[in-house]
Amino acid sequence: MLVVFAAICGGAYYVYSQMPSSFLPEEDRGVLMTIITLPNGASADRTQAVIDPVEDYYLNVETEAVDSVFMSLGFSISGSGENAAMAFVRLKDFADRTDPNLSAAAVSGRAMSYFSKIRDAQIYALAPPVIQGLGQSNGFSMVLLDNANNGADALAQAANQLADNTADSSIVTNIRGNTRDLDTQLKVTIDRRKPAHWGWTCPPPMPCSGPHSPDRRSTISSMRARSSR
Fold this sequence. Notes:
With 229 residues, the chain is of the alpha+beta class. It is 28% helix and 18% strand. Among the domains are: 117 residues, Alpha-Beta Plaits (2-Layer Sandwich); 39 residues, no CATH class.
């Protein structure tokens, strides 16, 4: 009887010791996300110049693991604007990725190493969260609260400082603070009598238009999908 009990205990210990020890074990769900953030004020052309090598890496370097890539310029988890972009990477079926080097974690690790050479942007290759609703990617999310009412700038600085302090940690990796700075907004009040005097028309809510109106450009989010096959 004692031998059976000892065998059960030994088997339970072996199973327990083989389980992943992380807070939330990584799970290969067959997809990856890549967040691209350039400095504030960066143009869409500058962002596109970063998107192209990211897309090229997935489709031409990781051909054994990647099935297709969907790129979005102007939108990202960290915010929207001409300096933001995001890639959704679909990996091949699990039957075609039996090699551990073709797993989502392995592809993400190699991508992070490659993208670190691109100095013009912050690029993170991430897997989606294991538990839906718990963070935006694998792992966990942490929220800071400004109880002392020090302001948004101090709060963003504290978040980034916290991320920097964990760079040498052996417990957690890929900690990110506020990846986007606060954007400055400009409020313009138009004296409608003066544009009318100059021949402009400003019918609300349309923007001003007229023979002397300056060129206007609108920021539009562009999307592109490509396959490695």
